[in-house]
Write a structure and sequence with these properties.
Strand order of the largest sheet: 3-4-6-9-10-11-12-13
Largest sheet: 8 strands, parallel, barrel
Number of helices: 11
Bound molecules: flavin mononucleotide
Strand content: 15-25%
Amino acid sequence: MLFSPYTIRDVTLKNRIVMSPMCMYACDREDGTVHNWHLIHYATRAVGQVGLIIVEATAVTPQGRISARDLGIWSDDHISGLHTLTTLVHEQGAKIGIQLAHAGRKATVSGEIIAPSPIPFDDNMRTPKEMTKTEIEETIHAFQQGARRAKEADFDVIEIHAAHGYLINEFLSPLTNKRTDEYGENRYRFLSEVIEAVKEVWDGPLFVRISAHDYHPDGLTVNDYIDYAQRMKAQGVDLIDVSSGAVVPAKIDAYPGYQVPFAETIRREANVPTGAVGLITSGLQAEEILRNGRADLVFIGRELLRNPYWPKTAANELGIQLEAPKPYVRGW
Ligand SMILES: Cc1cc2nc3c(=O)[nH]c(=O)nc-3n(C[C@H](O)[C@H](O)[C@H](O)COP(=O)(O)O)c2cc1C
C-alpha cells in the first residue's frame, strides 16, 4: 500500500510517503524568504520519490516565528520564492504542501510575543501577552492571507499547524488557555475560525497537525482529540496529521511508532483520514501501519534527513520496483 496512489479532492499523490514538516532555520537574511538551501533540500526529496513534501512551519506573521530564521508567508514578497520551490518539486513529480504556523508563546523573536493566556512555556521563555480580541481577529486574518499566498505560489496542500504547543495548540489545551471569554469557554473556537477563514480562499486539500496528547495529568488526551477531530471533519478538513506533546514541558517516552495508536484511534473513532508520524523508519513499519488501517499516509521526518532516497530503500525492503528518475536509471 505504501506505493499505491492516494487522492484527496483533486490532488493525487503517487504514493503514501509524506515528508514531515521540519524547520530548517535556514533563512540567513532573517526575512522569511526562500533561500537556496530550501530549494536544494526539498527538491532533493522530490527526486528521491517522496509522494508529498510538506514544507516546514512557515510563519503567518513575523511575530509568530519560532526563530528569526524561519520561513515566512506574511508578505506578498514571499510568493515568488515559494513559487520557485513548488515549480522545482512539481518538475520532479512530487506534490508539495506548506505548513502554516504561528508560534504563539514559543516564539523567540525579539519584541512582544502573544498567546491565549499570559503563561510562559518554562522559566527560560518569555511571558507572552494575552491576546486581545483584535489580535485574535488579526491572527486569523494572517492565516487566511497565508493560505491565499500559498495558493498563488501553487501549493497542492495546506497544513494548519495546531500541534507542538504553538499558538493554535495553546488555544486548544486547558493547560495554556485560561481565558474566560468565548475563546476560553470554547477552546476549539480559534482553530474553528482559522479553518473557516482559510476555506474562504482555499478549496484544495486541507490537513491539520495536532498534538493528540499533552502528557500532563490536567492536559488533553487522544479522547479529547476524537471530539476535536470530529469537528474538524465536519468543517471539511481532509486529513488529521497526528503528532503529540510539546504543549508543556514533559518527558515523552518515544519508541518506534509511539504516536501511531493516536492516529489509529482518531481514524477509527472520528472516521477521518489520518497521517501517522514519529520514529517510523522502515518500509515494513510503514506498510504495517497502512495495511492494518491505522493511518492513510505515513509521515517521515528525520529518516528523510538522513536518507533523501528513503522511498527507494523502503521499496527495496518491500520488494517493489520503484521507477527511477530518468537520469538515474543506470544507478538505480
Ligand atoms: C529538524 C526538525 C524540525 C522540525 N520542524 C517541525 C515543523 O516545522 N513542524 C512540525 O509540525 N514538526 C516539526 N518537526 C517534527 C517532525 O515533523 C516529526 O513530527 C518528528 O520529527 C517525528 O518524526 P520522525 O521520528 O520521523 O522524525 C521537526 C522535527 C525535526 C527533527
